[in-house]
């Protein structure tokens, strides 16, 4: 008798477990089915009592629908939890809502300690997000990556392109002008090509830095130029040379690559070439910081023996020893202007080059 009772309880437990497992599986299947059966335009149209085309016009933001009909459709959208199919919408509008930010540098340069790149990427992302667009970061620091980037853009994956840090040998500015896609350059292109761009007054900013050194009584002013295949490197060297030529002083030049290490190397070279120099203008702050390090190693006091001026006004310039005099270049504002110029181009608005002003920020290094 006891054995039959125990077998009965065991059978009951097995039956209960089986029924519970069946219920769980049925619930999961039902949930999966409901997730797969997402509301359609037709379902929204039936709920709102309007045509499918009317619902399509409402969800795509077209203004050809009366306010009361729009309210009915949006109420049905909210009740059913309808989510527009972005891929289908893009097929109709021929828009991807994505914009490429193409940086013509290798990854180790973009993700180095140079804050310019992170500032541009962050400012572009925030401004595009406000406009309902997605930024796609593409690095083009080699011939192979140039080809990949060109192929990606030619494939219609983005609605527009922003070019950053192009060099003289960069084929992308010319190649992209052949494609039916709006393109804007961050900085004047290094090659002769008809592209709208946003830049800062590199020549004027450098000239103001050198005039400041002359006004402080410096007589043998050297420069650490940036890469001469970049517009920034060329224009800042031009501003330096123009002022010295007008004041009948000779140029003393070393060339870096916008990195801290190259600034230190260039500063040591300048001290060897002209030990009597009493000032140096570096074409960016990172090279100026490297120059400060080399001067300290050489036993030269800043600014007593050698005054130093940089360019860009990065955050670190305020915390060097001594704090660095520099030319303020508004990279974030320049990026926002570039994004807005591109958004205008994407809506067929005319676009002219824009040159943004600079300002000399005087600190203890000069």
UniProtKB/TrEMBL annotation:
Residues 39-93 form the HTH lacI-type domain. InterPro entries: Cro/C1-type_HTH (IPR001387), HTH_LacI (IPR000843), LacI/GalR-like_sensor (IPR046335), Lambda_DNA-bd_dom_sf (IPR010982), Peripla_BP_I (IPR028082). It comes from the Bacteria. Residues 40-62 form the HTH cro/C1-type domain. GO terms for molecular function: DNA-binding transcription factor activity; transcription cis-regulatory region binding. Keywords: DNA-binding, Transcription, Transcription regulation. PANTHER family: HTH-TYPE TRANSCRIPTIONAL REGULATOR GALS, LACI-RELATED TRANSCRIPTIONAL REPRESSOR. This is LacI family transcriptional regulator.
């Amino acid at each position: 008798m006891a054995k039959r009772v125990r077998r009965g309880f065991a059978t009951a437990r097995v039956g209960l477990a089986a029924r519970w497992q069946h219920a769980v599986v049925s619930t999961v299947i039902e949930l999966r089915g409901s997730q797969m059966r997402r509301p359609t335009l037709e379902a929204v149209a039936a709920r709102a009592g309007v045509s499918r085309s009317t619902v399509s016009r409402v969800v795509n933001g077209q203004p050809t629908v009366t306010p009361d009909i729009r309210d009915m459709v949006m109420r049905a959208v909210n009740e059913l939890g309808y989510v527009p199919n972005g891929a289908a919408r893009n097929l109709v509008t021929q828009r991807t809502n994505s914009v490429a930010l193409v940086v013509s540098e290798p990854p180790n340069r973009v993700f180095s300690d140079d804050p310019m790149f992170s500032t541009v990427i962050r400012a572009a992302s925030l401004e595009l997000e406000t406009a309902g667009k997605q930024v796609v970061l593409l690095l083009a620091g080699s011939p192979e990556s140039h080809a990949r980037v060109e192929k990606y853009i030619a494939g219609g994956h983005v609605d527009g392109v922003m070019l950053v840090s192009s060099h003289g040998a960069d084929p992308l500015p010319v190649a992209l002008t052949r494609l039916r896609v709006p393109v804007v350059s961050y900085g004047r292109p290094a090659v002769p090509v008809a592209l709208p761009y946003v830049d800062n007054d590199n020549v004027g900013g450098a000239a103001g830095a050198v005039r400041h050194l002359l006004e402080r009584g410096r007589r043998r002013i050297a420069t650490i130029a940036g890469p001469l295949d970049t517009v920034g490197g060329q224009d800042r060297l031009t501003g330096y040379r123009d002022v010295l030529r007008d004041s009948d002083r000779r140029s003393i030049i070393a060339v870096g690559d916008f990195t801290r290490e190259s600034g230190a190397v260039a500063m040591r070279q300048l001290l060897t070439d002209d030990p009597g120099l009493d000032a140096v203008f570096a074409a960016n702050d990172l090279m100026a910081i490297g120059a400060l390090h080399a001067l300290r190693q050489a036993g030269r006091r800043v600014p007593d023996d050698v005054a130093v001026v940089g360019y860009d006004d990065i955050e670190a310039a305020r915390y060097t020893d001594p704090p660095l005099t520099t030319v303020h270049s508004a990279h974030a504002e320049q990026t926002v202007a570039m994004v807005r110029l591109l958004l205008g181009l994407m809506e067929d608005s005319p676009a002219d080059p824009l040159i943004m002003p600079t300002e000399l920020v005087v600190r203890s290094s000069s």
